[in-house]
Amino acid sequence: MPAIVHPWRESLPRFVVTLVLLAIGMPSLGLAEVTIVEGQGDQEGLATFKLTVTPAAEPTPALKYRFTVPELEIKPGNAAPFYYRSLISLQYLSRGLQKKYGDDWSEYASLPTDQFSVDLVREMVGGLSQSSAMDALHEAVRRERCDWDWQIRQMRGIKLAEFPLPEVQAARDWSRQLALAARLQIVEGDYEAAIHTLMLDYEYAQDLARVPFFVNGLVAIAKAGILNQQVIYLIGSPNSPNLYWALSELPQPFADMRETVRSEMAIGLRIFPMLQDAETAEHSSQEWDRLLAEAVRTLKTHVKSWGNSGTGFYTGEELLRLLDEDFASVAYPAAKQRLLDAGMEAGRVEPMAVGQVLLIDAAREYRRLADESEKWWYAPYPAAHRRMEEAEEESLDLGSQAGFGQAVVYGLLPALRAARMAQIRLEWQMNALRVVEAVRMHAAETGRLPQTLDEISVVPVPLNPIIAQPYAYRLEGQTAVLELPFSDGMPGVAWRFEIQLAGEAAQDAAKQ
To answer: Strand 143-145 relative to strand 15-19: parallel, antiparallel, unpaired?
Structure first.
């Protein structure tokens, strides 16, 4: 197998990858191509896509090409059993590819053309099209609903936080298989087949995101990112169809995680049900203290299971130090004072057991901190992202005033800001692809690239969702530059499209 460099892996050093996508036997206005430059100078994380494109008008009919299943093809029934059947069959195909072509077999989808062997990749994906895995996937994406039936809302206890999701991780295999198949179809010039192949995984990703676990939504976003790579290759292929409306039909946000937010922000109350009725329950002092001790043990066991991975912020050592043998006595004064400051009468607080004070305070603090983080999810991103960061910093503050509520928030609540950033980053990039297609549509109508995005009237030009303003765009000679800069606020990620017209279209534009 030839050495492979992958232009989408942020951890790799700077390099240049040239992808010349040829349509076999297809007449063209000139050679279309995609050159990807990863990192320039000190701008690590910047991906520059140099596209030489053919102008492309709106298809006729407008939705001739879709990344969703047409309405008349939708069937009654549940998709989930068919997804499971497809995964069972797919694992054998993936193992065979790994055994024969090595662990990096899926990276063939991003090989430069001079390393891309059509015959070899045909051999690699040949078993997929006729497989029972593909048959099951076709059935799955056409079902009218997808119910994974995991009964998440009925789960209680720490097992909810540790619920295994092997089928979610296995879903990534489908993206690798389908990306490879789509890349072959693009190189061969079979664009309709490539669009159909990509549609299968766009639909799969959306069904995956319907489960209220953040990991489902994040895997769905990752799958869409892999598919978007192939869309860029397709846009840079000669005489490729315009995909503006196909991309516009996809949901925005692609992975809607509102229900996930609601579910996951209540996870502490499901795992520690004593917090739900802490203010009304009647227990002996000994029972209150036992409930607290049991809850602390449960949380410590969960934190220890992190190993070195932690929550994404810390390793958990700070939390374990907080939850030491003296936790109750250390946390009691601050918890008691918070109840008094909130208006609870001293005559009620003073007789309470230490465990009761800490659990009532925990229920209040958990809900306060959780709500403070959750509420900003529902605000527009430009106004919300800084406030989400502030709420996150407060919830992660395990200072001397921290009680059990703060400990539960730290140990169990998801990183909402990171999830929201992943969601908006995908929309930021997908909207940019729609802008590129709007530029191609304008070029087909006028014979030239637009000087500004305001010149484009044939379709609405999507806004940059991070700043709720137009994307940065300029025309430099015969090159249109569309920028998604670091200043937009996506850590370590920036994109730039440098777009030129191919062949005769470029010559005609130069004469104008």
So the answer is: unpaired
CA distance 187 to 238: 10
255, 302, 367, 388, 400 from 360: Cα distances, Å: 36, 22, 11, 26, 18
C-alpha of 78 from chain center = 24
401-432: pLDDT as tens digits:
788 998 888 888 888 889 999 999 999 999 99
Separation of alpha carbons 492 and 46, rounded Å: 8
What is the percent of the chain with per-residue pLDDT over 90, rounded to a whole number?
61
What's the whole-number average pLDDT of the chain?
A: 86
How wide is the angle at C-alpha 301 spanned by C-alphas 298 and 306, nearest 5°? 130
Torsions phi, psi of 244, nearest 5?
-55, -50
Please state the pTM of the whole predicted model: 0.87
Q: Which strands, in side-by-side order, build the sheet including 472-476?
A: 15-19, 33-40, 43-53, 494-501, 479-484, 472-476
Q: What angle, 0 to 180 degrees and rounded to 10, lies between the N-to-C axes of helices 404-412 and 381-395?
A: 120
- Residue 505, token pair as written in the block: 């279209």
Contacts of 444 (CB under 8 A, 6+ apart): 55, 56, 57, 242
* Spatial contact of 331 and 403, defined as CB atoms under 8 Å apart: yes
Asked whether the CA dihedral 179, 182, 188, 189 is positive or negative, the reply is negative
Tokens of 104: 């990096």
Q: Measured between alpha carbons, how far is 192 from 17 in angstroms, rounded to an integer? A: 26
> Which whole number is the average pLDDT over 221-243?
95
In the chain, the percentage of residues whose pLDDT exceeds 70 is 88
Q: Using CA atoms in the order 396, 398, 402, 405, what is the torsion angle rounded to 10 degrees? A: 40
Sign of CA dihedral 10, 220, 171, 264: positive
| pLDDT band, very low/low/confident/very high, at 188 (cuts 50, 70, 90) | very high
Write out pLDDT tens, residues 52-108.
Answer: 999 999 999 999 999 999 999 999 999 999 999 999 999 988 899 989 888 888 888
User: What is the Cα–Cα distance from 354 to 329, expressed in whole angstroms?
Assistant: 8
DSSP letter string, 31-65: --EEEEEEEETTEEEEEEEEEEE---PPPSSTTSS
Contact between 503 and 28 under an 8 Å Cβ cutoff? The reply is yes
| Per-residue pLDDT at 35 | 79
Q: Quick one: which of 237, 150, 148, 147 has its CA closest to 191?
A: 237
